[in-house]
Specification:
CATH superfamily of the largest domain: Aldolase class I
Distance between the termini: 32 Å
Largest sheet: 9 strands, mixed
Mean pLDDT: 94
Number of domains: 2
Structural class: alpha/beta
Number of helices: 14
Strand order of the largest sheet: 9-10-8-7-6-5-4-1-11
CATH architecture of the largest domain: Alpha-Beta Barrel
CATH class of the largest domain: Alpha Beta
Strand content: 15-25%
Oligomer: single chain
Low-confidence stretches: none
CATH topology of the largest domain: TIM Barrel
């Protein structure tokens, strides 16, 4: 079993219009220096409640973690080790970077402290799209950052967003080909997801175009040696993100910092969304077991089953039917009935005891996941 740590760094130069993560500016009354000390206190207060001490992945997310210098993260790594955590020999330590924050000095600084994977949030190379999304960087920033990452021959991932307002198929193809010129080992290509009333929902490509966009993404990336291992993620063999894979395989992870979520089976818990509330809670030395009910839950049988189907079917490996055995024969038969119904509609395929989405199913994956959402009443009825 693998174990990961997520650390949320909320600081940003500018908030993107599509972002709903907990973020703040560098001018926040709680400075980065103070914030790192709060996370150190969180480690000291709660580390004894974390049963797994061998760490396979650390992910520095945000926000824009690359606004911070390497010595801040070095302080955190030292505190983990002083608290009994052991970094595995093959540990993946990733940091999210915005293009305008990348420099050779900073890359060298991060490499010295053990960061070995870099995730660059390009999103698009088209300047008017960047401005519309509220991104601070320019295409020139992206090209410069990619030149630096390529120069150092680093393990880096590149993020793109598609189905942007007024984006055409040709725009998307241009983004993909410009990204691939730098030979990333991993790419994440996400569909823009905003509520219907959001300003960015106006002028988005119609559904048939979005479907064609997904097909173009997969074909283009696979033609360049990047193969899909999850709905939005592609990599060369052996360069799949350990951090992401932990989530999709329902492994344990500990989230630290404001708004960070954790999963220690069968429990889930999370920190306050707002920075002042997080600070207040950490200064109280509140342990995980003492968190209020609004910040923790024990997953019910129906939640476990739903999450198993959802996370497994996002991956190309799919859901192994043997994973349903612990739920009991009656529940397994109930799930199989739903799966077979989806199979008849060519949304799911069953092969070698594994269930996975068909290309048609991937295109409407959210609808498939809704049909595999299980209510407590269904589970009780099937168990009785």
């Amino acid at each position: 079993m693998a174990f990961g740590i997520y650390i949320h760094i909320p600081y940003c130069l500018q908030k993107c219009l599509y972002c709903d993560f907990s973020t703040t500016s560098l001018e926040d009354p709680i400075s980065p220096e103070e914030y790192i000390q709060l996370i150190i206190k969180e480690i000291s207060t709660r580390h004894q409640e974390i049963p797994e001490k061998t760490v396979d992945s650390i992910f520095l997310g945000g926000g824009t973690p690359s606004l911070l210098e390497g010595f801040f993260f070095q302080l955190l790594f030292k505190r983990f080790k002083d608290s009994g955590f052991v970094f595995s020999e093959s540990i993946e330590i990733s940091i999210e970077m915005n293009p305008e924050t990348v420099s050779e000095r900073k890359i060298e600084d991060y490499l010295k402290i053990g960061i070995n994977r870099f995730s660059l949030g390009v999103q698009t190379f088209k300047e008017d799209f960047l401005k519309r999304c509220g991104r601070k960087h320019t295409p020139q920033h992206s090209f410069k950052a990619l030149e630096i990452l390529s120069k150092y021959h680093l393990n880096f991932s590149l993020d793109l967003i598609y189905a942007l307002p007024n984006q055409t198929l040709d725009d998307l193809k241009t983004d993909l080909h410009q990204a691939l010129e730098f030979h990333p080992l991993h790419m994440s290509v996400y569909e823009l997801t905003v509520p219907s009333h959001h300003t960015l929902s106006q002028g988005r490509p119609i559904e048939p175009t979005q479907i064609e966009m997904r097909q173009v993404i997969q074909e283009t990336l696979e033609n360049h040696g990047l193969f899909k291992y999850e709905i939005s993620n592609f990599s060369q063999k052996g360069y799949e993100s350990i951090h992401n894979s932990l989530y999709w395989s329902q492994q344990d992870y500990w989230g630290l910092g404001v708004s960070a979520h954790s999963y220690l089976s069968p429990k889930r818990f999370w920190n306050p969304y707002h920075l002042p509330t997080y600070k207040k809670q950490i200064l109280k030395h509140l342990k995980i077991k003492d968190l209020p009910p609004s910040q923790k839950e024990v997953l019910s049988l129906s939640q476990k089953l739903t999450e198993l189907c959802y996370t497994s079917l996002r991956t190309t490996k799919g859901l192994c039917l043997d994973q349903l055995n612990p739920f009991g024969l009656q529940i397994k038969e109930m799930v199989l009935s739903k799966i077979k119904n989806l199979q008849k509609r060519n949304l799911i395929t069953i092969k070698d005891n594994h269930v996975s989405l068909t290309p048609e199913g991937e295109l409407i994956s959210n609808q498939v996941f809704v049909e595999l959402t299980f209510l407590p009443t269904e589970i009780e009825f099937s168990s009785s």
